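stage 2 :: seqdesign
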């Protein structure tokens, strides 16, 4: 009787242990860490809130035409610009990074999402290494690659 009870207990334990196994989904790898550091922003300058789209193209030798469209938190932002980040060495993937910044309004206004578009040329860009540009805003980033030539 005792042997039969032990055998039934062992069978129950094995059955219950099989019920508890779960396959854990592997967590996605973290995004690669940026090796560039941001440039110093002037007083009153800050990153725009969000970037919706971005594009780059070589407009003439030695100049890279950059365009970004996004939004800011209120009307009145001015002097929008791109601040290239500082790299110790050329990025291995050829994607350079820039911050999309603008001057905040002097007087606070009503919070209303306002579209903004920035078109500037990057003179003296690293033509030998550049394959694309990653544009940074407060809440997101967008990568624009050079068109195949």
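stage 2 :: out
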């Amino acid at each position: 009787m005792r042997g039969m009870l032990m055998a039934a207990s062992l069978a129950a334990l094995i059955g219950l242990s099989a019920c508890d196994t779960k396959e854990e989904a592997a967590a996605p790898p973290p995004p690669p860490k940026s090796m560039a550091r941001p440039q110093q922003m002037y007083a009153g300058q800050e990153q725009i809130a969000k970037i919706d789209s971005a594009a780059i193209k070589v407009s003439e030798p030695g100049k890279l035409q950059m365009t970004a469209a996004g939004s800011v938190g209120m009307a009145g932002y001015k002097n929008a610009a791109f601040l290239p980040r500082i790299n110790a060495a050329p990025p291995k993937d050829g994607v350079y990074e820039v911050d999309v910044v603008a001057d905040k309004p002097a007087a606070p206004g009503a919070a209303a999402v306002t579209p903004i578009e920035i078109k500037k040329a990057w003179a003296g860009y690293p033509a030998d290494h550049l394959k694309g540009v990653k544009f940074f805003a407060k809440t997101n980033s967008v990568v624009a690659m050079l068109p195949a030539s």
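stage 3 :: structure notes
- The longest helix spans residues 2-19.
- The helical segments are 2-19.
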